[in-house]
Write a structure and sequence with these properties.
Largest sheet of chain A: 4 strands, antiparallel
Number of strands of chain B: 4
Shape of chain A: elongated
Radius of gyration of chain A: 30 Å
Shape of chain B: elongated
Largest interface: A-B, 57 and 52 residues
CATH topology of one domain in chain B: Cytochrome Bc1 Complex, Chain C
Strand order of the largest sheet of chain A: 2-3-4-8
Strand content of chain B: under 5%
Number of domains of chain A: 2
Strand order of the largest sheet of chain B: 1-2
Number of helices of chain A: 1
Structural class of chain A: alpha+beta
Number of strands of chain A: 10
Helix content of chain B: 55-70%
Distance between the termini of chain B: 59 Å
CATH superfamily of the largest domain in chain A: Rieske [2Fe-2S] iron-sulphur domain
CATH class of one domain in chain B: Mainly Alpha
Largest sheet of chain B: 2 strands, antiparallel
Order of helices and strands of chain B: HHEHHHHHHHEHHHHHHHHHHHHHEEHH
CATH class of the largest domain in chain A: Mainly Beta
Oligomer: heterodimer
Number of helices of chain B: 24
Helix content of chain A: 10-25%
Order of helices and strands of chain A: HEEEEEEEEEE
């Protein structure tokens, strides 16, 4: 005896519903775990760039009077995910005394790819040890063949109490012409 | 046994599978040129096993990554060998990938119907390079940190998605814990997972289409087992032997000093097989680096991927082979240029030496009884006089002073020395030179400063020069006594041995023959403070710290100070920094006990 059809619907229509349901349910359960992971994966995009804050970096007396730049560490609170460490080096700056006792500050990070530039006293210019970018004392690109897209990033300086050198410290995105804070 | 195997076979069908695996037809018989795929599978297996073993001891965070790798390398049983095996097998894999690619292209194994197999191979090549890139950072040493920082900064120039890509990979705006957790997840999870999937595809397609025989066929067809298996095994053994040689030759993989985001690392270079990209970047002036970093490598990969199509043309195969050779020669030439530039660069050599010094020192300190603090090994170096002393001296003191004729780190400042050379300050030898009429006004002592016209210089040049033989003996004794005040580590044994000499030297020092107490003070003897530096505790840690803090204090030079800044009073140096310079000058730093 032929078995009776278990439903009155025509076979292809029943198939369609079964297939659609299988795809919908299968798809739905397959999507949830990757989505949950994706949220954490892209979480860093939420981290906004931090505005620079003024940091006491040095005293006037520590900056050579002959106009030679000198490197100073920038001590501030470092935030690294769950850790907050006060008073540790978060970067470094070159400070240089200009004629009228003004102070010039450059972030030591090369705007090309993020290495620290050296000041070469014998040549009187800055040089990056990674890809050979060079910068003049005023931070401009010296050798036009330098791979750096812009000059050194200068930072605002303020003299407080007559001798304290405060620098508004900030890092900038590497590899682009514009100075974009990160 | 046989019934048991039959039982298993009925339920799994393993015999058929084994037969298919071992008795695959090798057209033209076994050949050495077919071994490369197997050597790669072997290397990948080594990497999975050694990687899992390393995982047992590795901890990805910025306070524990270097520390755990240090522990593997220097404290755990066979850890250095395990790391070495993982490290050098990774290098071998890169070389073998290139050889495998060459064999495939030269033999025309990329042509239809094997296009997908070829492409899956290219994906595997890129994934393996991804493993190298992510693995380089994991020890969190200076070298890996700075090289990877450059790499992720370059990734950020990718059009449109660059900055977001960098943020997602780095795990935020700056390098830190999440950079490590992410690189580790990529290195040990995502990429190996993808590689396993693609190896599956690769081997399935390879079995489906079979070996592309190299014509002319020298011998009749044969089965994979045992001839080809033997050749594959011998090739894998050769690879393993080379890797073992490298492990023992270099005593495992290198571990640099712990990463310090604020400490310059001028020797930052990528792994040797990325040097060509590094070199290429030097040729693209500001703003055009996208050509060197993305466009040109992208075009080359595009041409590589198009080989199956190009190969259909009449001269296509020849083009492909020529292109591959040209690319490899180009890569080789750029690598050579990069190495050549570094070889002729004294700054690079100095940076490498400094890096090795720091690396060695970090391990010594980590092995010291104090060990690594919870803040991580980077604080060990930051608080180490041997590491920081020379740098601080070069920056703050060397514009006038010298240390053994150089600036502390081996360089020469622009201006000639204008104050004393402080190597061995307050030692018997140093003091003997100071009191030598022939030496006191040389640049080694007072020659460059206004002290050369002062009372002390006059005393030495006139009075000491005219001393009787007896007074000269007294002076030598007195200097021994004065030097003992410094309690120098290097003179500890001599000071103990010469206790009685020091006692009589003290009498000579405060006696009237020499006349020291006419200007100086020494404990309860001599002048009031203000006429000359106090000799009480001369050159001791406390004396020197106070001196650097404020040389204008009446206890020291008072108003007669020449140009030396009051580093502490003017806040040019922190108390900790003054302590580090002092300890370094006095030779006080941690040294392991000699066995």
């Amino acid at each position: 005896m032929e078995p009776k059809p278990i439903t009155s619907l025509p076979p292809d229509r029943r198939d369609f519903i079964t297939k659609a349901a299988a795809i919908a349910i299968g798809g739905a359960i397959a999507v949830v775990p990757p989505l949950a992971g994706l949220a954490v994966f892209v979480d860093p995009l939420r981290r906004k760039s931090e505005a620079g804050s003024a940091v006491l970096v040095a005293t006037l007396g520590a900056i050579p009077e002959n106009g030679e730049p000198r490197k100073f560490p920038v001590l501030a609170t470092k935030i690294d995910a769950w850790n907050r460490t006060p008073h540790v080096p978060v970067g470094a700056v070159y400070l240089q005394r200009l004629k009228d006792n003004q102070i010039r500050a450059f972030n030591v990070v090369c705007p090309h790819a993020g290495c620290f530039v050296d000041f070469r006293p014998t040549k009187g210019h800055y040089h990056c040890p990674c890809h050979d970018s060079s910068f003049s004392l005023d931070g401009q690109i010296l050798d036009p063949k330098s791979p750096s897209p812009r000059g050194l990033d200068d930072l605002p300086v303020e003299i407080r109490q007559g001798s304290e050198v405060w620098v508004t410290f900030q890092n900038f995105r590497a590899g682009v012409h514009e100075k974009i804070p990160v | 046994m046989k019934p048991a195997l039959d039982w298993l076979d009925q339920r799994t069908g393993y015999k058929k599978l084994l037969h298919e695996t071992l008795f695959e037809n090798v057209p033209g018989g076994a050949r050495w040129r077919y071994v490369w795929g197997s050597t790669l599978a072997f290397c990948f297996t080594i990497q999975v096993i050694t990687g899992l073993a390393l995982w047992l001891a590795y901890s990805p965070s910025s306070q524990t990554a270097w520390e755990s790798v240090y522990f593997i390398q220097h404290e755990m049983w066979g850890g250095w060998f395990l790391r070495g095996l993982h490290h050098f097998t990774a290098q071998a894999m890169t070389v073998l990938l290139v050889i495998h690619l060459m064999q495939v292209v030269i033999d025309g194994a990329y042509k239809a119907p094997r296009e997908l197999n070829f492409w899956s191979g290219i994906v595997l090549l890129l994934l393996t390079l991804g493993l190298s890139l992510t693995g380089y950072l994991l020890p969190w040493d200076q070298k890996g940190f700075w090289a990877t920082k450059v790499a992720t900064n370059i990734a950020a120039i990718t059009p449109f998605i660059g900055p977001a890509l960098q943020k997602v990979v780095v795990g935020g705006n700056d390098y830190g814990h999440h950079t490590l957790t992410r690189f580790f997840a990529l290195h040990a999870g995502f990429i190996p997972g993808a590689i396993i999937a693609f190896i599956g595809v690769h081997i399935y397609l390879f079995r489906r289409h079979g070996i592309t025989p190299k014509e002319p066929r020298r011998r009749p067809d044969a089965a994979f087992w045992p001839d080809q298996v033997l050749r594959d095994a011998v090739a894998c053994l050769a690879v393993l032997l080379v890797v073992l040689f490298l492990i023992f030759r270099f005593h495992g993989a290198e571990l640099g000093a712990p990463a310090d985001p604020s400490e310059q690392f001028s020797a930052a270079r990528p792994e040797w097989y990325f040097l060509f990209l590094f070199e290429l970047l030097k040729y693209f002036p500001g703003g055009t680096e996208i050509w060197g970093a993305i466009v040109i490598p992208g075009i080359l990969m595009g041409i590589l991927a198009a080989m199956p199509f190009v190969g259909n043309w009449k001269l296509g195969h020849r083009f492909n082979v020529t292109f591959l050779w040209a690319m490899l020669v180009g890569i080789g030439a750029l690598t050579f240029l990069a190495l050549k530039a570094d070889r002729g660069n004294p700054d690079y050599h100095a940076a490498v030496l400094a890096a090795e010094r720091d690396a060695h020192r970090a391990v010594l300190l980590a092995q010291s009884p104090e060990g690594i603090p919870p803040t991580g090994a980077v604080t060990l170096l930051r608080q180490d006089a041997f590491t920081q002393g020379p740098k601080l001296f070069a920056k703050n003191c060397a514009s006038c002073h010298r240390y053994d004729g150089h600036d502390g780190v081996g360089g020469q400042p622009k201006d000639a020395p204008s104050a004393a050379d402080l190597k061995g300050f307050a030692s018997r030898e140093w003091l003997t030179g100071l009191l030598d009429p022939a030496k006191i006004t040389t640049p080694h002592y007072f020659g460059g400063s206004k002290l050369q016209g002062g009372k002390m210089a006059k005393f030495v040049k006139d009075d000491v020069a005219a001393f009787s033989a007896e007074a000269k003996t007294d002076l030598a004794k007195a200097l021994t006594a004065l030097s003992a005040e410094a309690r120098l580590k290097t003179q500890h044994a001599a000071d103990q041995r010469d206790a009685s000499l020091i006692q009589s030297g003290t009498k000579a020092l405060i006696g009237t023959t020499l006349g020291c107490m006419d200007c100086h003070k020494f404990h309860d003897s001599g002048e009031e403070l203000g006429s000359a530096p106090d000799l009480t505790g001369y050159g001791s840690r406390e004396w020197l710290i106070d001196f650097i803090h404020n040389p204008e204090h009446p206890r020291f030079y008072g108003s007669r100070n020449d140009r030396m800044p009051a580093f502490g009073v003017e806040k040019q140096l922190t108390t900790q920094e003054i302590g580090l310079i002092t300890d370094w000058l006095r030779g006080e730093w941690y040294e392991p006990k000699k066995l």
